[in-house]
Amino acid sequence: MFASLQDNLRTALKSLRGKGKLTDANMRDGLRMVEEAMIEADVAYPVVQDFMARVSEEAMGQKVLKSLNPDQQLVGVVHEQLIQLLGPVDPSLHLEKDVTVLMMCGLQGAGKTTTCGKLARLIGTEGKKALLVAADLQRPAAVQQLHVVGESVGAKVYSEENASDPIAVCQNAVKFARENGINVVILDTAGRLAIDEELMEQLKTIDRKIGPDQCFLVVDGMTGQDAVNSAKAFNDALELDGVIMTKLDGDARGGALLSVKHVTGVPIKFIGISEHMDGLEPFYADRMAGRILGMGDVLSMVEMAQREFDQDEAMKAQKALEAGSFTLDDFKRQLEQIMRPGLMKKMLGMMPGFGDMANMLQNTDHEKDMRRLRGIIDSMTREERRTPKVITPTRRQRIAAGSGTSPQEVNELLKQFDAMSSMMKGASPSELIGKMQRGDLVDPTGKMKKNKVGTGKRLSTKERLAQKKVRDKALRKRKKR
Amino acid sequence: MGLFNPFKKSEEQPAPPAEEQPSGFFSRLKQGLVKTSRVLNTDIRDLFKQEGRLVDDEFLTELYAILVRTDMGVGPAGKIRDQVKTDFRGRVVHLSEVLTTVKTELVALMQQPETPIQFAESGPTVVMVVGVNGSGKTTSIAKLASYLKSQGKSVVLGAGDTFRAAAVEQLSIWADRLGVDIVKAEQGSDPASVAFKAVDFALQNNKDVVILDTAGRLQTQTNLMNELDKIRRVAGKKIEAAPHEVLLVLDATAGQNGISQAKGFSEAAQCTGIILTKLDGTAKGGVVVPIRQTFNLPVKYIGVGETPEDFALFNAEQFGDALFADAF
């Protein structure tokens, strides 16, 4: 997400860095590159101009030019302005009333129905009951889709057969909610073009007759320059309360986020980062600005780790580690947790300086790797899994044959296990993250660093000197010849 | 140059054959693009409010802003601006002069032969439709099916989106409405098997065209992109050259990410063309310009509405003409 905006900005700022001293002239060059990076990232042109005007004003001031690290100052200025543009935010849903009505609207194919399901799931986790209302009577099978989505997140779906008037459906749904003790009603309206006057009028009528407490615009994260037009039209028609941006899990540059925020001024509430029902993240301006500039977002990463990892499993593994009884079985479970497709990439993308690594990972097939590793571990005897030290070359051969791999791969796995268990021993999560940030976890080849342990063959000073003498003697002999 | 001179138009641009031009094609295309051209033309005219204006930096920046707003990207927009700069710098110009240059540049960039579907020499032609989530694949398939049917082809649809909730139902409803055959499987089943069955069905029943739907996917999802290759291979098991066409459905509202989409899907599924959808909104779909430049991927059809008739062949000159229709 935002990778390209990030890359382009980084290149722009890097070229400034090389200049040594910043002058008025090369600062202008740098600013123009920032501007082009933003256009390439699909930020709408008027927004870019406005943003650049503000950045330039700050940057061209004496403050930046005279500072010791002008490029860093410029990054700071851009960062600050990004936060200002993206904020203030408020990711809460404000569900105080007995029955809160949320209305979703947007263009066709923005992801309204999927987002409805994600919201219902989120509301469900807060212990409230959500009702999904099928008010999209336009698109074929939209009602069925909502039913399937509702079922998968355990939310009730209100629909009327052969209905033709979405307004009536919405009214009846709200009544239904009141009678059945449901807390939140989510209206899934049909996708429409902002210039389709008839359908926009219909949306206004729903807004007037139902009076939804909040109205969310769902915007496709891949939208280009047009984002300003449609967002403005919807905002004019409805007075939006928030924006949800979808499909940000690809390589969308997400510039539309800036555009929409700029023209509507309403907070961005959530971002959709997966096609699955749990792929909805609250939006934070400071974190996002940091992410755009490649400063990393450790806070989000920790939160995600806590959410994504099975806490019981993690506790078990931690206990096993502390007790010194971390076995290959535990290792396998841990691997399964972190090797889930996409997870690693997501997490790495949030870490400062790891963006490139995330790209590298993109081309590797985790599931395949995972299957192979699992196969190797499954081909071991219980004893071998518990105490990997007993694995001799012949056993290794057998394990390799059993799992359809090579002895080298078995070795590789054992090395990783070794590295992991020694690394994890006694390390608190915060220490680990610190290590990750410093890059201490991996050796230059990208593999996990091996912890150094005594070989039992450490020589005394005397012995070392004696050996050196022998070596020098041999060397002199060779030179003479 | 002369090709775009309005006075030579009649001899240089013969009307397309009648069978490829459903009634009111041009008007529909124009209707869909009228919003686009209104923006372009009004804005450019704004630059020339006083008859004849000096071409200076301010002028060029304004022109650049207008071009960027079409989503064509920094590259092509910069190229056009520089062209105008070399041609008119320091001169006082008239609206028509600059418009001719801009249009010439635009059409030259977009220039492409009118390329409808390459039908198989014998047996069914297999058309696979791919794209990101929500770009309008299913609707485009319905339109394409209706379009081919109106040309007298028998069509069978393969409901290969077995992932999204109710996608199969959506396509089934279209198949019912259009009166074409559909081959489907349960949600969650292997899309490649649906493709195989659909091709098999077409062979058994002597159908002319098989249109395979696929689930929406982002071009960065490696495994899902590999799945497209599998569908391709499986479709090719029964008919050697299949799929004959792989069409990428591109949302006109998509910005520069469209380039990444074209790249990703071309690599994974060897796309042969683009269906540009949602051109009836305020979006301009200018991203097809850099796509054409970089990947040589032609736009074959355009979608300008929600009904099956809102579908037409793409034509660069008409596209350009429609953009600047009111200008001359």
Automatic annotation (TrEMBL), chain A:
The gene is ffh. Residues 435-481 are annotated as: Disordered. Keywords: Cytoplasm, GTP-binding, Hydrolase, Nucleotide-binding, Ribonucleoprotein, RNA-binding, Signal recognition particle. This is Signal recognition particle protein. It is an enzyme of class 3 (hydrolase). Involved in targeting and insertion of nascent membrane proteins into the cytoplasmic membrane. Binds to the hydrophobic signal sequence of the ribosome-nascent chain (RNC) as it emerges from the ribosomes. The SRP-RNC complex is then targeted to the cytoplasmic membrane where it interacts with the SRP receptor FtsY. Belongs to the GTP-binding SRP family. SRP54 subfamily. PROSITE patterns: SRP54 (PS00300). GTP binds at residues 106-113, 188-192, 246-249. Its main location: cytoplasm. Residues 467-481 have a biased composition (Basic residues). It catalyses: GTP + H2O = GDP + phosphate + H(+). Its EC number is 3.6.5.4. Residues 267-280 form the SRP54-type proteins GTP-binding domain. Part of the signal recognition particle protein translocation system, which is composed of SRP and FtsY. SUPFAM superfamilies: P-loop containing nucleoside triphosphate hydrolases, Signal peptide-binding domain. InterPro entries: AAA+_ATPase, P-loop_NTPase, Signal_recog_part_SRP54_M_sf, Signal_recog_particl_SRP54_hlx, Signal_recog_particle_SRP54_M, SRP, SRP54, SRP54_GTPase_dom. GO terms for biological process: SRP-dependent cotranslational protein targeting to membrane. Gene3D superfamilies: P-loop containing nucleotide triphosphate hydrolases (3.40.50.300), Signal recognition particle SRP54, nucleotide-binding domain (1.20.120.140), Signal recognition particle, SRP54 subunit, M-domain (1.10.260.30). One of its GO terms (molecular function) is GTP binding. It comes from Blastopirellula marina DSM 3645. Composed of three domains: the N-terminal N domain, which is responsible for interactions with the ribosome, the central G domain, which binds GTP, and the C-terminal M domain, which binds the RNA and the signal sequence of the RNC.
Automatic annotation (TrEMBL), chain B:
It holds the Pfam family SRP54. It catalyses: GTP + H2O = GDP + phosphate + H(+). One of its GO terms (biological process) is SRP-dependent cotranslational protein targeting to membrane. Gene3D superfamilies: P-loop containing nucleotide triphosphate hydrolases (3.40.50.300), Signal recognition particle SRP54, nucleotide-binding domain (1.20.120.140). The keyword Cytoplasm applies. Residues 298-311 form the SRP54-type proteins GTP-binding domain. Its EC number is 3.6.5.4. It is found in: Cell membrane; Cytoplasm. Keywords: Cell cycle, Cell division, Cell membrane, Cytoplasm, GTP-binding, Hydrolase, Membrane, Nucleotide-binding, Receptor. GO terms for cellular component: cytoplasm; plasma membrane. Residues 1-24 are annotated as: Disordered. GTP binds at residues 131-138, 213-217, 277-280. HAMAP family: FtsY. Involved in targeting and insertion of nascent membrane proteins into the cytoplasmic membrane. Acts as a receptor for the complex formed by the signal recognition particle (SRP) and the ribosome-nascent chain (RNC). Belongs to the GTP-binding SRP family. FtsY subfamily. This is Signal recognition particle receptor FtsY. It comes from Blastopirellula marina DSM 3645.
